[in-house]
Amino acid sequence: MVKKWTVIFPAPTGPEERCAYIYLPESYNEDTRRRYPVLYMFDGHNVFFDSDATYGKCWGMKEYMDFTGTEIIIAAVECNHSPDNGRLMEYSPYTFDDPYFGLVTGYGKATMEWLVHTFKKDIDRYYRTLRGRNNTFIAGSSMGGLMSLYAIIAYNKYFSGAAALSPSLWTHPENIEKLIRSTRVRPNTRLYMDYGSRELQNHPGMKKQFQRVTSMLLAKNIFLNARIVPNGEHCEACWEKQIPFFMNTLLYN
């Protein structure tokens, strides 16, 4: 079951209404004493319904969860759809300059502050969640993947696991590397991170950057599952195929 409602999001252009989504396992209404882990996801409009997805194809998370009987709550909020780099600003932890996009001011920290101190608190208040770090995860793709990587490092006290699919490391590699080097990560931190083989041609040096970041993450004793997806592309249809891989990493044991 997926519920939809609106939340007030502190966008760079001012507070605005956003659509929020929550997936509840089939057992949620049957066992009213049970509490569940929570997976937070970026780009909520792309997670559950083709009709809401930007390009007409969602991840199919509801179908996967129902089919496998995976008992976890999924909570997500749609991104900024402003054509003036709205999504890039909200999902960028740092400010960066790009020949194509121009100067992009990073509001990623503000996005995460709202997610952990407002949205997460509301989810924990109104739903039967397991609130602790060991049962709280985060996932996303592209810029959402970058945010998931940022979250599992910078907000490691809240999340024990993350899935960063096709993370946009090209936006500010030096800052991400500095963050990983300088941050103390708690034990039992799990991370799934991938990149599609056909994506590598989009950004020169991405394979080398992916190798650098994965090596640094391993040096932090993070339980890392890193993959180059055979024939993988930058789209929801490809990310949907990776669900079994990243869910197994997040929920292992």
Characterize the structure shown.
The protein has 253 residues and is α/β, with parallel strands linked by helices. The chain has a single domain, classed as Rossmann fold. Helix content is 33%, strand content 24%. The protein contains 8 helices and 10 strands. An 8-stranded mixed sheet has the order 1-2-4-3-7-8-9-10, with helices on both faces. Strands 5-6 form a two-stranded antiparallel sheet. Helix 5 packs parallel to helix 6.
Q: Strand order of the main beta sheet, please? A: 1-2-4-3-7-8-9-10
CATH topology: Rossmann fold
Whole-number mean pLDDT: 94
Per CATH, which architecture?
Answer: 3-Layer(aba) Sandwich
**Number of helices, counting only DSSP H or I runs of 4 residues or more:** 8
Number of strands: 10
Q: Per DSSP, what share of the residues sits in E-state strands of 2 or more residues?
A: 15-25%
Distance between the termini: 25 Å
What's the structural domain tally? 1
- State the name of the first-level CATH class: Alpha Beta
Rough shape? globular
Biggest sheet character: 8 strands, mixed
- SSE order, one letter for each helix or strand: EEEHEHEEHEHEHEHEHH
